[in-house]
Amino acid sequence: MTACKRSATRSKNQNVLLHILGYFKEDLDSFEKQELIRLISQYKDGLIPLIVPSP
């Protein structure tokens, strides 16, 4: 229940998305990785919604 009390933020979501990206590093080529990192950065900056960079 303690974990449920913590609010999600763009920064925390970005951290989670980057960790998830690590699980796919063997399956993605360099362009795909850079594209996902770009999308995650745009999400953190508030330019796109969370659903866009989700793998």
Mind explaining what this structure looks like?
With 55 residues, the protein is an all-alpha fold. It has one domain (8-55). The chain is built from 2 helices and no strands. The protein is flat, with a radius of gyration of 12 Å.
Low-pLDDT sequence parts: none
Task: Kindly give the count of domains.
Answer: 1
Count of β-strands: 0
- What structural category arises from helix and sheet content? mainly alpha
The number of helical runs is: 2
Helix content: 40-55%
Rough shape?
flat
CA-CA gap between termini? 27 Å
Largest sheet: none
**Could you tell me the mean pLDDT?**
90
How large is the share of residues in beta strands?
A: under 5%
Give the radius of gyration.
12 Å
H/E series, N to C?
A: HH
Short description:
This protein is an all-alpha fold. It has helices spanning 10-23, 30-44.
SSE diagram, text form:
Layout: H1 10-23, H2 30-44
List the main descriptive attributes of the protein structure presented here.
55 residues; mainly alpha
